[in-house]
Amino acid sequence: QVHLVQSAAEVKEPGASMKVSCKASAYIFNTYYIHWVRQAPGQGLEWMGRIHPNSGATNYAQNFQGRVTMTRDTSISTVYVEVTRLRSDDTAMYYCAKGVQGGFDPWGQGTLVTVSS
Amino acid sequence: QSALTQPPSVSGSPGQSVTISCTGTSSDVGSYNRVSWYQQSPGTAPKLMIYEVSNRPSGVPDRFSGSKSGNTASLTISGLQAEDEADYYCSSYTSSSTYVFGSGTKVTVL
Questions:
Q1: Among candidate residues A96, A93, A76, the one with its CA nearest the CA of residue A34
Q2: CB B88 within 8 A of CB B105
Q3: How big is the CA angle at A102 (ends B70 and B42), to the nearest 5 degrees?
Q4: Cβ–Cβ gap B101/A45 under 8 Å
Q5: pLDDT digits 0-9 by tens, A63-94
Q6: Contact, B56 vs B62, CB < 8 A?
Q7: Which of the 8 DSSP states describes residue A88?
């Protein structure tokens, strides 16, 4: 069964950076995009971007251009999302999800990132 | 990229049908069949319910169906059950090679 396992929750100060990991298993890692989606407390889903593990090619949502970087380590089937210059409104649950036929399935369990001084 | 427009809430009694709309533009929903729907219960990750407008993944009950007309996609839940109470989100691919989600709809089973 395909699994995506994310890193543990983080607490960061404003202005710092965060880096969340997502480890894939039980499928050919290089074949499918991995997407990142975040959800602020009580709010809706927001697509952040995607990375293709084979080429490293990325697409980012306009809202995150210049502040988000997605990378991968194919040797351990893991992708990463890094967000710099954190603000309080970056407090959210961050999810990774495997891209399938125009959708996202499955999803990781989520990583809560709290930005607070 | 603005979020796709969904009604904030819909409700129905058990056994009834409810339909959730998802309105975009000719740059997203209107131009691509990469429209999908997600169910999210409190404290859990979203679950894929429909992909490519109208296809159901294995394990999703056939009372969930999807369609699209022009710039608007729709999710219909027929024979509503108590377990269907959740938040639902649509998503679409866009002409910028990005994706966008809908604003979300809370489904209440009366």
A1: A96
A2: yes
A3: 95
A4: yes
A5: 998 999 999 999 999 999 999 999 999 999 99
A6: yes
A7: G
